[in-house]
Amino acid sequence: MLNGAVRFLKPVDGNKHQSVTWVSLDGEHWSEPFSCPTGLGTWRWSVTWHKGTAYSFGYSGKDKQGCLYSSKDGKIWDIVKDDVYPDVQSYGNETSLIFLKNDTAYCLLRRDKGSYSSLLGVSQPPYIEWKWSDLGIHIGGPKMIPFSENRFLAVVRLYDETQRTSLCWIDPKAATLTEAVKLPSGGDTSYAGLVRQDDVLWVSYYSSHEEKTAIYLARLKISD
Question: I want to staple 152 with a disulfide (CB 3.0 to 4.6 A). Which of 117, 123, 170, 189 is the partner?
Answer without folding.
Answer: 170
